[in-house]
Amino acid sequence: MTAEMQIAGVSAPPPPGAGRLRRVGGRLGQWLVSAAVVLGAWQLFIIVFHVGHFVGKGPLDVWRFVATGAGAADARSQLYHASVTTLRDAFVGLVAGTIAALGCAIVFNLRRTIEQTFMPIAMVLRSVPLVAMTPLIALIFGRGLMCVTVIAGIVTFFPTLVNVTLALRATPQASIDLFQAYGASQLTTLRKVQLPSALPAVFASLRIAAPLALVGALLAEWLATGTGLGDLMVESSSLSNFNMLWAATALVTVYSVFLYTAISGVEKRVLVRFADVP
Description:
Elements: H1 3-8, H2 18-48, H3 59-68, H4 72-110, H5 112-126, H6 130-141, H7 145-169, H8 173-181, H9 186-225, H10 228-238, H11 242-274
């Protein structure tokens, strides 16, 4: 602070980057508080419901199992390789389901008769339990990546289709009328008005669908492919290796939170760029 500013009673401006540091520190504090709440709830659940120590493993038990125990290195290796497979499966299914849903939503928006014909069929298919469909999907598409992609894509497809279809339909009519008054085609109006206005719904759907894609990948691994974290969890349960089971469950939770947070971060930047959202 300069002498003139001291005399005038004016505070010195904050140093460059101070605002960013405060935001980072605030977010880190929120993450730490959230992690503490989740870990505390985890341990409290075991205590309140009197889960035996042989089955119930708390955060400290899992930490010792993957970090400091005698077989920690082998446990980390198993979890890492299984995680790579599951995250790949979930990502491929999420991308495939989202692209298919966006394509269908655009077609429904351009041709309402197609929407009236096929949307009820889609809702009927959505009501069929995915567990019941998995064996049939495995018979049709095999027990490899295609099977996992279809299952994870199905759980991604339906919420994205409904949300984006409604968002495209909810575009302000005044904006559409303005483009039509200047002779813009339906595709141009869709590209320049409706799709940008539907971006919040797209990202909201992605935030919902990303954890669902992870669950779909686990389901496919349990029932069809025999790989990834899904198979590791089934194997750990059958062998009474409950440390591994709880560790895998904790990892799935961490991955779900990470995917949700990563999509939220991308959403802020994309909306600022394309949808004029501050």
